[in-house]
Design goal:
Blueprint lengths: L1 E5 L4 H16 L6 E5 L6 H11 L4 H4 L6 H12 L10 E4 L4 E4 L3 H9 L5
Parallel strand pairs: 1-2
Antiparallel strand pairs: 1-3, 3-4
Helix pairs in contact: 1-5
């Protein structure tokens, strides 16, 4: 299962979504794609998993201004009601394989897709 935390107004986010949609046929890889649009933010449990995947020391890359997981949860909780602007999008999460790509790094997204386990 891949989850894309997506902002429809963002060019980078739209591009990552386009790559994901076309990739399942181009790479003959089957995956379930969940799209979570702003202002919805990850739950505290999801955020904890994401930080485990990328490294807790990179929390500010996911939630700018956060110095810890607790900071990030607080900032997202406050931002969620005002548009979810407190987190970086696009954010692609591969829950099954413990990986995440923060931001619009198309190369990193393609590498993640290419290394998905085959069917």
């Amino acid at each position: 299962v891949l989850t894309l935390f997506h902002t429809p107004a963002s060019t980078a986010s739209k591009r990552i979504l386009e790559i994901l949609r076309s990739s399942s046929t181009a790479h003959k890889k089957s995956f379930e794609l969940d799209i979570v649009e702003a202002p919805t933010v990850p739950t505290p449990t999801q955020l904890s998993s994401i930080l485990e995947f990328i490294g807790k020391d990179r929390v500010a890359e996911v939630v700018p201004g956060a110095r810890s997981e607790g900071d990030a949860v607080g900032l997202l909780r406050g931002q969620g009601e005002r548009g979810g602007g407190g987190m970086v999008r696009p954010l692609l999460v591969d829950w099954n394989n413990g990986r995440a790509v923060v931001g619009g790094d198309e190369g990193a997204v393609l590498r993640l897709l290419e290394t998905l386990p085959g069917n």
